[in-house]
């Protein structure tokens, strides 16, 4: 069964007809030509498909597109629509937070989500009970643990997230 939906992708409304079983990732990549989110595992285990959905990070391979009709989807490409890099994107460049680059769009979107979660005061499993979460290596590593890098650029990724967080 097909459905007509509108997704607001990187600030632009995009209408598309999708099979009701189509994931958000497949709608973005295959139907709309938005190739920033990558298909890695297609099982929600690697994080390469991470996008911001209404400002919160999600694994787009696990979300059915029809359930997000009318919602805002921001990819790594949409973080800096005016052409200048988003502070997180710049930090990834400054700290060598990438190697092959395949996971980078998902890492960047996840990092933006992580910093927003910290700003909102959301605790993680490594946040001490009753403490306000703060930006340190342990906190960043835990919050970014859903995003895998086959090249092993984790030191640069942690440094980039910490740097971008401190620059806010």
TrEMBL record:
Q: In which pathway does it act?
A: Alkaloid degradation; nicotine degradation
Residues covered by the 2Fe-2S ferredoxin-type domain: 3-79
Protein keywords:
2Fe-2S, Iron, Iron-sulfur, Metal-binding, Oxidoreductase
Gene3D superfamilies recorded: 3.10.20.30, [2Fe-2S]-binding domain (1.10.150.120)
InterPro entries named among the record's database cross-references: 2Fe-2S-bd (IPR002888), 2Fe-2S-bd_dom_sf (IPR036884), 2Fe-2S_ferredoxin-like_sf (IPR036010), 2Fe-2S_ferredoxin-type (IPR001041), 2Fe2S_fd_BS (IPR006058), Aldehyde_Oxdr_Iron-Sulfur (IPR052914), Beta-grasp_dom_sf (IPR012675)
State a single Pfam family of this protein.
Fer2
Q: PROSITE patterns under this entry? A: 2FE2S_FER_1 (PS00197), 2FE2S_FER_2 (PS51085)
Metal-binding as a keyword?
A: yes
- This chain's protein is named Xanthine dehydrogenase YagT iron-sulfur-binding subunit
- Species name for this entry? Pseudonocardia kunmingensis
